[in-house]
Amino acid sequence: MIKKPKYLLLLLSLATIAILSAVVIPAKAGTKEMKFYSVKKQAPEFIHHYKSITLTKEEEAIKVDALSKLQAPCCKDNSALTCCCPCNLAKTTWGLTNLLIREYKYTAPQIRKAVTEWVKFTNKDGYKGDACYTGRCGLPFEKDGCGGMGEKLILGS
User: Fewer C-beta neighbours within 10 Å, C or N terminus of the chain?
Assistant: First the structure.
């Protein structure tokens, strides 16, 4: 038991500051950089993260904020959050996002930047935004396709 009131007041003040700091001061945004080096290796990994990482409500809110502001590369009338279907291209984007939120602690703007870089990396010539409506779902990413719809990921060279 503390016998001097001024020490008790000091301890209470420090405890209050510690509690407020934990609540008010946000965690530092992710500083680790995501590197893209191989569509063939990373696409299956990102699809795995889509299936294996279940986001909390708070994390899901970050995902919604990040991807709802990006156009889906294969169906430009949809956002990257919803796409028009769970094609393999969309699954890579969703899995990458899950990974960036959970492991890298990325913010929504950081996720948008990384997802945009991933999409460009998968198809250096860019996406027309109509693959889903013109029969290119079964084509590899590099041929402006969705990489397939099922578990078998269709990748090009």
Answer: N
106 and 100 in contact (C-beta within 8 Å)?
yes
Q: Is residue 24 part of a domain?
A: no
Domain count of the chain?
A: 1
Amino acid at 103: E
Residue 16 in domain: no
Q: Global pTM?
A: 0.81
Is residue 1, in this structure, part of any structural domain at all? Answer: no
Q: Residue type for 134, please?
A: T
pLDDT in tens, the chain (157 residues): 556 555 545 444 444 444 443 333 344 678 899 999 999 999 999 999 999 999 999 999 999 999 999 999 999 999 999 999 999 999 999 999 999 999 999 999 999 999 999 999 999 999 999 999 999 999 999 999 999 998 788 876 6
Q: Which of 72, 52, 70 has its CA nearest to residue 110?
A: 70
**Rounded to the nearest 10 degrees, what angle do helices 108-122 and 88-102 cross at?**
140
From the number of C-beta atoms within 10 Å of its C-beta (0-12, 13-18, 19+), residue 130 rates as middle
Residue 22 forms part of a structural domain: no
Range of the domain at 76: 39-143
